[in-house]
């Protein structure tokens, strides 16, 4: 931090929340759905439990990224159907 923000910090803490993340069984990664549903047209998945292609963690950030990916896939599908 720099400037006024750093000067105004009086205290901070790092909080560890062991139950704040999803836990999955070993090997369950193989069963995660892809962003684009394989068996349903125009169906897209988003969330920390979605296989986004190589990233094997579960977090809010992954949920956000898969949301963006699902939105992009839906927009591409719509564009394809209109052309």
List keywords for this structure.
mainly alpha, 83 residues
Explain what you see.
The protein has 83 residues and is mainly α. The chain has helices spanning 3-8, 60-82. The protein is flat.
Can you describe this structure in just a few lines?
By secondary structure, this protein is mainly alpha-helical. Helix content is 35%, strand content 0%. It is built from 2 helices and no strands.
- Mean pLDDT across the residues is 78
Estimate the helix proportion, in percent: 25-40%
Runs in which pLDDT lies below 50 for 5 or more consecutive residues are: none
How many DSSP E strands? Answer: 0
> Largest sheet at a glance?
none
Structural class by SSE content: mainly alpha
Q: How far is the N terminus from the C terminus? A: 49 Å
SSE layout and pairing:
Elements: H1 3-8, H2 60-82
């Amino acid at each position: 931090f720099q400037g006024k923000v750093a000067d105004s910090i009086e205290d901070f803490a790092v909080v560890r929340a062991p139950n704040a993340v999803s836990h999955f069984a070993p090997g369950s990664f193989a069963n995660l759905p892809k962003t684009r549903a394989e068996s349903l047209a125009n169906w897209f998945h988003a969330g920390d439990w979605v296989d986004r292609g190589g990233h094997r963690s579960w977090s809010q950030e992954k949920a956000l990224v898969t949301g963006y990916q699902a939105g992009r896939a839906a927009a591409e599908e719509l564009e394809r159907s209109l052309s």
